[in-house]
Every structure is written in structure tokens, then in C-alpha cells.
Here is the input.
Amino acid sequence: MPEDKHPPTAFDTQAVWAAEEGPFPYGAATMPIVSAATFAYPDLDSWQAVALGQRAGHIYSRNSNPTLAVLEEKIARLDGTEAAAGFATGMAAISSTLFTLLSPGERVVSIRDSYGGTNVLFEEFLPRFGITATLCNTTDHEQLEREIALGCKVLYLETPTNPTLKVVDIARLSAAARRQGAVVVTDNTFATPYNQKPAALGSDLVLYSATKFLGGHSDVLGGLVSGRGDLVHCIHHFREIAGATLHADAAYSILRGMKTLGLRMARHNQSAQAIAEHLRRHPKVAAAYYPGLDTHPGHEIAVRQMRGFGGVLAFVPRGGIGELRTVLDALQLAQRAAHLGGVATTAGPPAVTSHVELTAEERARAGIPETLIRYSVGIEDAGDLIADLDQALARI
Ligand SMILES: Cc1ncc(COP(=O)(O)O)c(C=O)c1O
Here is the structure.
């Protein structure tokens, strides 16, 4: 048997080494940022050999770039997929994937609780191209299976969802989609490859807002899609023309973040579990949402398909909008920001974060309380975060 070029190793080892075994130019210890827009050749023959794909190399950074290529190989290796493509933002990855896969007259089946921007694609932009999106109740697996059985080109999933952390059974729904020949796409932003491997559960493509946990430091925007080689090839072709390629600078920042992904996710998982359990019992909290709580409706599925339950939780302080304001404004160890997945704790209501694109009625229909606080647990000391939440809740 040929020797396996990349024998399986533990996640933390892969996070450091995958695609970064080197050697790198100049003997550099890390992959350098190749910020060149284009690549020059000494003669036409060598240029043409690369342009025609007869020799490895790069022509123009909208099409491919050495630093970006390392990031693409890294996420594919961590996801256990064949290939990946990097985009300027998570939304660029999502929209490019959907526009590559879908044609006029075709149908996508998805869930109501997708990220707000994704919802806008389903409800506003795709219909303009004659593509229909049927959005099912997120946790109603029977309804999803019925809609899939009616025929669809794409099944689009996201789990856990933003911001109420609903859990969708990837293996069960992928099996239903496979019977119809549909392509399964899963947004794995909240879980990351540390907590969940959608490809092993039957998803053909895995999407990320790399802006969140993969980058991890709230200092870079990016998006990634990884999965089946033939599909990624088509999405990559779309990217060459639509042009929302990730820049080498951003690719480098995300690569640096990903080296500590395992360490950070282990801490996020542990702290979020402790905080969710604290909030569930808190007298000033009306509801707490976290897939790691055994009272959470999606807990059983989460236990089956996730290694840990992630760094995002949500809770509803008792009272109305006034109380929400009081608690949010009193938090000292949380940035009030439309973001999640960073090393610093971030908090905000969906009305100004994940679901700002929706009206209050649409949020109500999606089952998102206006007084919900999405709380992305950073890597600070969990005891300090609990004390901060307690002092803020005590003001109600
Ligand atoms: C689950 C999920 N998917 C996609 C996106 C979009 O990513 P980006 O902001 O990088 O475009 C977000 C952003 O918050 C998200 O939370």
C-alpha cells in the first residue's frame, strides 16, 4: 500500500501542522503572505504550462494565491473533505455556493432559522432568478423530509442555529436528500470542525464565516467552503468570475487563528456549558438556550453529532426591553457588538446582530424573542464572566 501522505493525527496536532508542513520560501517558519496581485514568468512556455494546468503555479490572485491555497488545504484537511475555496466574507462563500449550485426553476429546501443574511438570499435574491426556497420549521424533521421528498436541488442546513441554538440532524436529513440526488450544504460556523464534521455525517459541502471562530480574534473577515472536489471546483470557477476571493493578508490571519482553534474551542465549550447551567438556574433569567443543556430540545441530536456544544449561548432576562437594556449596558466583560466567535466575550440582541435584516414581525415568526441576548463566550476566565453576568442581572 502507498504510504499515507497525511496519517490521521489528533485535532490539535492537525490544527498546527495540516497544510503547513513546509518547507516555505526563504526557510520561513510560517507560510509568508504573498500579496502579489499577479505572478510573472521568464518565458511564454512556462507561463502557458501553468495557465493550462500542466504545471503547479499561480497566474492571478483573484483565481488562486499561494497563501490562500494553504488555508484552503488546511480547512479541507480539518473537515476531512477533498477541497476548499476561500472567499472575502462568509456571505460571499454562501452566496457564491448557492449561485453556483442553483439554476432558474430549481428549488432549495432549508430551515427558518438560518443566519439572517442567508435568509435574505432565500427570500429576496434567489427568487429574482426564478429559484424558490422552501423554509421549514427548523426542528421539524418530518416536515423537512416531506419537502425534500417533493424534490429539490439543494438542502441547506445550519446547526446549531443563530441565535437560539436549535439543532438539526445532519445525518438523517442528508440521507433523505441523497435519495433525491440533492446536494447537502451545511453552515458549520457555530460548531467549527473541532466540534462537528458535517462531511462525515453526509453533507457534500461545509460553509464557514471564518470571521468567527476560525479567525477567532475579531480582526479579519473571511469565508470558506469545503467539500466534494467536483462541487468545490465549480464554486471555485464561479469565484474566478464573480471575484469575491479572500485576500492573502486575510488568509494569513485566519491561518494563524486556526492554529489555536482546538485550544480555544475546548475553552469556549467548557465555559459556555458552565455559564449556560448558571443562567438556567438564575432567578432573573426567564430562559436559557444552549445545546449542552440536557433540557435543550436538540440536546440528544447534539450529543450524537457534536464533540462539544460550542461557544455561543442565548438567554432572556426577566422583564421587557427596559430590562434587556439594563443588563446589556451593565455588562463589563462583554463587547456590545454584532459579532461572535472571538477571544473576547460579545453580547447583543438579534434585532441588532444576526437578524438585523428582519423586521420585528419576521423575528417573532422565527421564534426569536426581542428580549433575547446572544452571548458569545470568549476565552476569559469563566468565573469572571459569571460574576459579570450576576452583577448585570442584579440590576433588574
Ligand atoms: C452562521 C453564520 N453564517 C454566516 C455568516 C456570515 O458571515 P460574514 O459576516 O463573514 O459574511 C454569519 C455572520 O454572523 C453567521 O453567524
The mean pLDDT is 96. The chain is about 40% helix and 15% strand. The two ends are 67 Å apart (CA to CA).
